[in-house]
Design brief:
The chain has 328 residues and is of the alpha/beta class. 45% of the residues lie in helices and 19% in strands. The protein folds into two domains: 162 residues, D-Maltodextrin-Binding Protein, domain 2 (3-Layer(aba) Sandwich); 130 residues, 3-Layer(aba) Sandwich (D-Maltodextrin-Binding Protein, domain 2). Pfam families: TctC (PF03401).
Length: 328
């Protein structure tokens, strides 16, 4: 054999052997589950619903670490700066890994730098409105928004920052209906919800959870619709967006998944994939996610989950392009 080819073959053989050995000992110490938002939000709730069962299935403690900032991209970059050894599992979504690189010029990573190991859950998106907005449903809202815009008073919609999924939804709503609307960005869900409750912003297309339901029951906000294709049992009291006359195709949700660096050795990825997949069958995990209006993900094979991530990346990039999203 050519000496150069012999060295390459030896190197590849060594890498394969190292991967196999690392998988046999992985995990040999606690694993970090990195959440790209502060404690107390929905992302944090999801992580703390899953981590104890995931710890049991991995044979090591899985410790939740919250690191917010820059639409989740600070935490995502931390994963890329760490070794590709599976010791950090990133709890991410299209918000941080697909949209942040498109919206924030300082973000240098690409969606393809990460590998989705397994889906966890899908969040239902609610069409929330301030309590005193003089509308009862989505169609009345559009009539009201059109009249307000014609009088130079465009309605306002909240988001958790420029380029976030919720910003894209608001811009897409404005473009789809041809009604001018004003974007009001916030640094997170909490301040956006606070201003919605205080009447400083008109609407917020946001994940629906127990807190939103309680506020609706107390008359502190309105749920005009769920952006679902049909009424689901968990939110059967609220109309699906498809029940409206004007926005039948405006159906959206956002998923959460667990990621690692793309160059993490395959045997380690397989260990993580099995542990997460087994966790999704646990009744406590499923009950906790469902109690927060999350739709528990159907476990996918590594091949299928890779395709789902690629398809989701293409979908969100297309939406960003349709509204001419520019990095800032």
């Amino acid at each position: 054999m050519n000496p150069t080819l012999r060295r390459v073959a030896a190197l590849l053989s060594g890498l394969l052997l190292a991967g196999a050995v690392s998988a046999q000992t992985y995990p040999s110490k606690p694993v970090t589950l990195l959440v790209p938002y502060p404690a107390g939000g929905l992302s944090d709730v999801i992580a703390r619903t899953v981590n104890n069962t995931l710890s049991k299935n991995m044979g090591q403690p899985v410790i939740v670490d919250n690191l917010g900032g820059a639409s989740g991209s600070i935490a995502a970059q931390k994963v890329l700066n760490a070794p590709a050894d599976g010791q950090i599992i990133f709890q991410g979504s299209p918000n941080e890994l697909i949209l942040a690189p498109l919206a924030i010029s300082a973000v240098k990573f690409k969606s393809e730098d990460f590998r989705l190991v397994q889906m966890i859950a899908t969040a239902q998106i609610a069409f929330l409105a301030r309590k005193d907005l003089p509308v009862r449903n989505v169609d009345e809202f559009l009539d009201y928004a059109r009249k307000e815009a014609a009088q130079g008073r465009p309605i306002t919609y909240a988001s958790v920052g420029p380029g976030s999924f919720y910003h894209l939804l608001g811009e897409h709503l404005s473009k789809t209906t041809n009604i001018p609307m004003t974007h009001v960005p916030y640094k997170g869900m909490a301040p956006a919800n606070q201003d919605l409750l205080g009447g400083q912003v008109d609407i917020f297309l946001a994940p629906f959870g127990k807190a939103s339901e309680e506020l609706q029951k107390q008359g502190k906000l309105k749920v005009l619709a769920m952006l679902n294709s049909e009424r689901l049992d968990s939110v059967k009291d609220y109309p699906a967006i498809t029940e409206s006359k004007s926005l039948k195709n405006f159906t959206f949700n956002i998923w959460t998944g667990y990621f690692v660096r793309k160059d993490t050795p395959e045997p380690i990825v397989q260990v993580i994939h099995k542990a997460i997949t087994d966790s999704l069958t646990d009744s406590a995990v499923r009950g906790g996610l469902e109690a927060n209006s999350q739709l528990v993900a159907k476990p996918l094979s590594l091949q299928a989950v890779g395709k789902a991530y690629a398809d989701g990346t293409a979908q969100f990039r297309a939406i960003a392009k349709s509204i001419n999203l520019q990095p800032q």
